[in-house]
Design goal:
- By secondary structure, the protein is an alpha+beta fold.
- It has one domain.
- The protein is built from four helices and nine strands, in the order H-E-E-E-H-E-E-E-E-H-E-E-H.
- The strands form three sheets. It has a four-stranded antiparallel sheet with strand order 3-4-7-9. The chain has a three-stranded mixed sheet with strand order 6-5-8.
Length: 244
């Protein structure tokens, strides 16, 4: 009678090692694929946010468009834009007012977006008719720089709006489930300018998107230039009033 021969411990160990190596080789590409998909989803969401901001301006009275204020905690609920003072936003940098805009409430990693807007573009002239409101001559005052010193030439100059996702690492972001942001000292210098409260030498008018990107930076940034905004508003006959 022929006796069945089983696996020896050494053979089983070799098989387990091979299986572990194969699983490890598959896990790394899968992780990279998931991360790439989340980045792509977030970029798509941020482009939708930019369109929603333009749409917000288009919904305002003809000749008197304005942009939303950040969610600075003064609205009725989280995600609502903040209050205005004399027709303009009290604060120009904070969280994205996702509820007001009707967009996703967080990026693909579950973190809130940071949003900044030039104050002159937030002037509701139906309330306070001043000459420096959002009209055909209004310019932006936000800068996107290529280095953490907020100097040395810009990536984008005098833009009206900037929106930031704090990327896969989420450093400095507030999580939608209530997680609080890291202290600035715990955030790499290359990302500190993009916090809701930036650190010196950068101000609340400055953002950073290094060129080329460095290993400590994974923020995603989109901006809206005044010319793009005005051109979109003027597609079917310009509704912008020139200042007197």
């Amino acid at each position: 009678m022929t006796r069945a021969r089983g696996f020896t411990l050494i053979e089983m160990a070799i098989v387990l090692v091979i299986i572990t190596i194969l699983i490890g080789g598959l896990a790394m590409p899968l992780s990279a694929q998931i991360q790439a998909r989340r980045i792509a989803e977030t970029r798509t969401d941020m482009n939708a946010i930019r369109e929603a901001i333009i749409g917000y301006a288009m919904r305002q009275p003809a000749g008197k468009p304005y942009l939303p204020c950040p969610d600075d905690g003064t609205g009725l609920a989280e995600g609502d834009e903040g209050i205005r003072d004399a027709g303009r936003c009290l604060h120009t940098r904070g969280k994205l007012p996702w509820r007001t805009l009707g967009v996703d409430n967080a990026d693909a990693w579950g973190n809130r977006y940071t949003y900044a807007v030039t104050r002159d573009f937030t002037n509701d002239r139906s309330v306070i008719p001043v000459n420096t409101g959002f009209d055909s001559n209004t310019s932006g005052d936000l800068e996107v720089h290529k280095d953490q010193n907020c100097s040395g030439g810009g990536v984008a100059h005098q833009v009206a709006v900037v929106v930031v996702s704090h990327g896969p690492n989420g450093r400095g972001a507030q999580n939608k489930n209530g997680g609080t942001p890291l202290a600035p000292a715990q955030v790499p210098a290359s990302e500190r300018a993009n916090l809701v409260v930036p650190t010196a030498p950068c101000t609340d008018k400055d953002f950073v998107s290094p060129t080329p990107l460095d290993n400590d930076f994974d923020d995603l940034i989109v901006w809206l230039h005044p010319n793009t905004l005005k051109n979109r508003l003027c597609q079917n006959g310009c509704p912008l009033n020139s200042p007197p």
